[in-house]
Amino acid sequence: MTTNQPSAEPATAASQPTPGPGHGAVVHADRLTVAYGTFVAVRNVSFRILPGEVFGLVGPNGAGKTSIVEAVGGLRPVRGGAVTVCGHDPRRDRAAVTRLLGMQLQESQFPSRARVGELCDLYEAIYRAPGSAAALLEAFGLAERRRSLIADLSGGMRQRLALALAQIGDVRLVILDELTTGLDPHQRRETWRSVLDLAARGVAVLLTSHAMDEVEALCGRVGVLRSGELVALDAPARLTEAHAGPSTFVVDLGDPSTGTSRPAGIEERLGGLGLTRLSGAPDRWEFAGSYPADYDRIVGLLARSGLPPSAVSRRTPTFEDAYLRLVGASAAKEGA
């Protein structure tokens, strides 16, 4: 897919802006609190989203993601604190925010018998932006589909159409809710590229997702929610480093049934390293440890015992590991 405004270099999550002096926030939430009667869904949440940044919100179902999205979009009143979009209150300045905001929500569905061009005409009328859809359809590879029925579009095309429609008008912020649910791997990657290209053109993106690999690939920063509170906010890589836990090393001690011999006394020598053994069959031991220090110790011991370095493999902690530790495995399971 081509874009009508290609960036000078490929867009990546790592190349996105980070908060600092002189940056004007597109979204500014300051101790935001949202409640439903006596139930407080979001409590004292603060964050900023900068131009050209993909900002992620993650957490179990019921953690407050939807309430925050609705507050930013002006669909939900706030109980305390404040949220602004380009300096405007989304509730009091609804008309101004509507012109600046595009939304692609998980539950929104286009009429199956409508044509792509008809939806474009509708959105152009709503956002008072006649003729703006043509360039967006071209950018998202849908220019030849203007007369197509929505029912005839693939899942990936519908997602790209949703992204295109969300940008009609002079939008500064696009909200994406569960962006790639139901898409195949190729469609997911195409949609990811569309989002990064969107950010490269200076549009701020607020993304909610249960797919941690998607968050890791797209987001410059991510806020982790638990029970309505923001428990962490940073770049995915830094959250992984701080919260994901140690690396895991799996040592293959040899399998007599395949003719691979096990060095005598190897179990005692491995035990003498003082590492925490997690699990494993008698011929495969799994340890938790730090990389590269503990990995080098294991490789050295194996070499002295006549086993090759390939006898040990390493599993690197992921952002999903960090997420599960931050929200609690039980909370993540209950919210799934």
Walk me through this protein's architecture.
The chain is an alpha/beta fold. 32% of the residues lie in helices and 23% in strands. It is built from twelve helices and 13 strands. The strands form three sheets. It has a six-stranded mixed sheet with strand order 5-6-7-3-8-9, sandwiched between helices. It has a four-stranded antiparallel sheet with strand order 11-12-10-13, covered by helices on one side. It has a three-stranded antiparallel sheet with strand order 2-1-4, covered by helices on one side. A hairpin with a 4-residue loop joins strand 11 and strand 12 (284-289). The radius of gyration is 24 Å and the shape is elongated. Mean pLDDT is 86; it is low at 1-10.
Radius of gyration: 24 Å
Main sheet attributes: strand count, strand direction, barrel closure: 6 strands, mixed
| Structural class by secondary-structure content | alpha/beta
Number of separate strands: 13
Shape: elongated
Q: Helical content, roughly?
A: 25-40%
Question: What percentage of amino acids are in beta strands?
Answer: 15-25%
Which stretches of 5+ consecutive residues score pLDDT under 50?
1-10
Distance between the termini: 33 Å
Determine the number of helices (DSSP H or I, runs of at least 4 residues). 12
The strand order across the widest sheet is 5-6-7-3-8-9
Q: What is the mean predicted local confidence, pLDDT?
A: 86
Strand/helix succession: EEEHEHEHHHEHEHEEHEHEEHEHH
